[in-house]
Structure formats: structure tokens, C-alpha cells
Amino acid sequence: MQKNNLVYGPHAVSDALDSGRAQRLWVLTTSDKGKAAQSRQDLADRAESLGLKVERVPRSYLDSRMGRANHQGIIAKVSPFPYTGFDEWLSRNAPPQPCLVIILDGIQDPGNLGHILRQAAGFMADGVIIPDRRACGVTPTVEKTSAGNAGKVPVMQVRNLNRTIKTLQETDIWCYAASMSGNTPLTGVEFPSRTAWIIGSEHDGVSRLVLESCDETVLIPMPGPIESFNVATSAALGLYEYRRQYPV
């Protein structure tokens, strides 16, 4: 069984049950009666109530499936992650309704992507756009790191970010890229109600062509000696500032 057909940890398994993606569960056999064991039992009961097979297994079995991953005593076999089509998303987010979308230009680390998807859900973003090549997709590690929030915001994979940005701009979505050489400090940006917040890769930042396609480049002021924020932190700061200006 391939690992990309498995999600692990209570939050990711719970999300898989909620979304209907779960197909089968493996749960740690234990005599423990603590909170973690009860959480796993609750998930097992939910799965069985949905007619799914639940197998109680020793820790060695779970370890053999997930290797060094922190499975927390529960694994689920799932259907593939349900990416949203870009055209479908556009039709559901047509002007003039407010819209906040995150564009990730080449994020490589699944931990960073997972944290950003969790933030996107927390700040009630309307979508997340990632490239379909040379970038991290939604993997089991991403789902685990997102604490079960990867499926709560539409995620789109696109072939060409520059063309995607142009299409967004044609639907009155203004595109702002975080950059160490940005023209405007984040604290001085007045986001439009329809905004795309663009974050670059861990090592190279936003690519030159994407920066040139944007409406504005934004500097996140950092007075200390550190060169730049982690990409997930930069994503959160822009999401916070937009939501501060447009509270739900």
C-alpha cells in the first residue's frame, strides 16, 4: 500500500471521515484509557458507523506502514486528495463578491504547505493556488501538519502561475506579492476586497516573472537581524492584515 493513499493522526483522519474520503482505518491496540486513546476510539466508532472496516493493530504494524511519521496510533486509507478546478473556483468566486486567495510560488516543504493550509482555513481564505510542477502538492504529511484543515479550503493546481495571475486580474482580483524588495510595507497596504496574496519558495522567494505580473510588491518590515520570515509566517501576516481590514 502506497503512503500517498494514507493519512495519519487524529485530525487528518477526522477530516477524511468528514469529507467522505476515508475507506478503511487501522487503530492502535492499547489498554490505555487516556484522552488520546479515547480520541482514537471515537474515530473508530465513527468509521464503523459509516460502514468502514476498522482493524486494531499493534504499534509495529503502524510503524511499518508510516516509517518515522508520527502517526499517533491511527491511520486511514483514503481516496486521492480532491483538488478543485481553477475554472470551477472562478465561477464560484465571481465579482463583485469579496475574495481572498493565496498563491504559493514553488513551496517545497510539506510542513510549510500544511501550516499555510491551516492558516488559510483559520483566516477563512477562499482558495489556495499551487503549481502542478516543481512544488509540493497535498501529501499525507501536509494533511497531518495542517491539523485536519487541508480539505477545508479549495486547493487548486495550475500549470502556469503567470497566466493564472492574469486571469485573476481580469476578474478584478488584485495581486500582491511578498518580497524583501517590496515597494510598500505591509502596514501601509489597503487591500481591495478581491485580493490574491502571493508567497514565494523557501529559498528563492517569488520568481521574477511572477513579481512582474503582480499589481504590487509588499515588504514585511523586520527590524531585527534576521533576513526574512519563514514562508508560513509571511503567509499568515498577509492573511491577518487582509482579514483585519475585512473582518467576517
Q: Could you explain how this protein is built, in words?
A:
With 248 residues, the chain is of the alpha/beta class. It has two domains: 3-78, 60s Ribosomal Protein L30, Chain: A, CATH 3.30.1330; 86-245, SPOUT methyltransferase, trefoil knot domain (Alpha/beta knot, 3-Layer(aba) Sandwich). The protein has nine helices and eleven strands. It has helices at 10-19, 35-49, 59-66, 86-92, 110-122, 140-145, 161-170, 208-213, 231-245, and strands at residues 6-8, 22-28, 53-57, 74-78, 99-105, 127-131, 155-158, 174-178, 184-185, 194-200, 216-219. The strands form two sheets. A seven-stranded parallel beta sheet has the order 7-6-5-10-8-11-9, with helices on both faces. β6, α6 (140-145) and β7 (155-158) form a beta-alpha-beta unit. α1 (10-19) runs parallel beside α2 (35-49) and α5 (110-122) runs parallel beside α9 (231-245). The longest helix is centred in the N-terminal third of the chain and has 15 residues, at 35-49. It is elongated and about 60 Å long. The relative contact order is 0.15. The mean pLDDT is 92.
